[in-house]
Predict the 3D structure of the following.
Amino acid sequence: MTGGIVAHRRKGVGSDSGQALGPGVSRAGRGLYLVICGPDGTGKSTLSRHLREWAEGRFSEAHVLHWRPGLLPQLAALAGRPAPDGSRPHALPPYGLMLSTFRLIYYWVDFVLGHALRILPLRRSGALVIVERGYWDVSVDPARYRLRVSPTLVRLLGRAVPKPDAVLVLRASPEVLVRRSGELPEPEVARQLRIWNGLAAREEWTILDVASPEAAIAAAAARLIESRQQGSHARRR
């Protein structure tokens, strides 16, 4: 797979990425909600860190959330159990169908209510809100969340999840991602990449190939954010 940026995106987003992060046209007061997703090893947290630093002076503040808004507590905490080992999310078997369905609906409520009560107020205050993984990660990698649920149910519930202003799907070749992460076998990584590619094409999300230099990836992500901000501002005028 060659490095670069794939143009599954709305009209107006540039695809070149050869510059480091620099002064942009963003202005504090126009917030934005961004989801960064992709298989393990694609550098979601690294990109989030770059964008959080870049956001200083461009947004009122920047927040990075993992997977979901976090309005509701983890189910383990409600049950008085310790949190599962986050370093090996695929180590444990999935729950049964009934418990998996309950867990899916519980966290779906967090995505819906958490958007209204946590993400939207931050966005309106001019903040950059970055969510790593997001709702559709459940569709791609249910084993990470120990879920054994119908893909149809995941898709139906997903229709009610508020859409972000922008979505970045990070990808590289399966061989590269296995070397970086090492938790999942290459065929599983390839399967996840195929699903992310399909979602990106259907939803007009932007794909960033992380075989590109780190600075180029961050610069391309910053330009996407600025493009979305400009489009949002133009619609309000």
In short: The two ends are 42 Å apart (CA to CA). The chain has one domain: 4-15+25-73+92-236. Strands lie at 4-6, 32-37, 62-66, 128-132, 166-171, 206-209. The longest strand covers residues 32-37.
